[in-house]
Design goal:
By secondary structure, the protein is an alpha+beta fold. It has a single domain (about 1-245), classed as ATPase, nucleotide binding domain (Nucleotidyltransferase, domain 5), CATH 3.30.420. The protein has helices at about 50-70, 115-120, 125-130, 140-150, 150-155, 160-170, 180, 195-200, 225-230, 245-250; strands at about 1-10, 15-20, 25-35, 45, 75-85, 90, 100, 160, 175, 185-190, 195, 210-215, 220, 235-240, 240-245, 260-265, 270-275, 285-290, 295-300. The protein is globular and about 65 Å long. The termini are far apart.
Length: about 300
Amino acid sequence: MEASVVGIDLGTSSVKVLVVSIGGTVLGYASGNYQTLSPHTGWAEQNPEDWWNRTYEALNTALSIARSNARTGVHVAGIGLTGQMHSLVLLDGTGTPVRPAIVWLDSRARTLVPEIHNTLETNNLLNCVKNRVAPELTLCPLVWLQRNEPQALACAETLLLPKDYIRFRLTNTLGTDVTDASGTLLYDIPARSWSADILSAFNLPPSILPDIAAPSEPAGTVAAELANSLGLDNQPIVATGAADQQASTLATGVLKPGLVQMMLGTGVQIASPTASGELELNGSLNYFCHHEGWLVQGSVQNGGSALN
């Protein structure tokens, strides 16, 4: 029986699933695409159920390929998760999305940016978020919903980021990690915690924010019924996971100041770790939590997609 781990990456347009032996051999790979819908100019939405359906299909396929390649069977010891940052998923009390997810490509909240910036500045909170206010960062579409779809916000009991929704479907546990939380404008980056002051400034309910864990911390195990449907011989541990940029820097070993990574996906990001949580706000750079310490990042949102 080949001991292995599974990696799931929920990207902007597709999910990718990789099954790798503990020794590092790739045993199986599969992917699946989903649509981005734009019901109005500047809107970008995705259906979380599509995320899950494509993830389940790709996971099932990758495991089948892995079993064929391993010949002696596959024992999955654990599952890791990563995915697109900032995108907003709101769940009701039953764990059902209250509306389509607003993804980071969305710009509907652009007219609110000056007001949101001024509110943060007036309340001396810009040094907490450490990022310029931009329409794709989670707080902005959340305020837009508060103004334009208050019924959706009233029905919401939990806010998740995309990879967190997949982990919820795998384990039935809710939560997020420090790296994804730091890209929401709802998080005190130097203190590495949700900001009650930001929630108060925008009159947002603190109860919708999930518990935060380290990316490597176990979040739960695959639900028994799901494990059985996937043909697993156990209920693998599922890690909390990390945002895509931080996960990729872990994979490439970019974990110390002085090292730099460039990633070309839908966008282009150049990132480098820093040991300080007290860098000054820079209008042209993003500043997020890393696995340990922090990550400075420069981005071009359509850099990769423009090459298509």
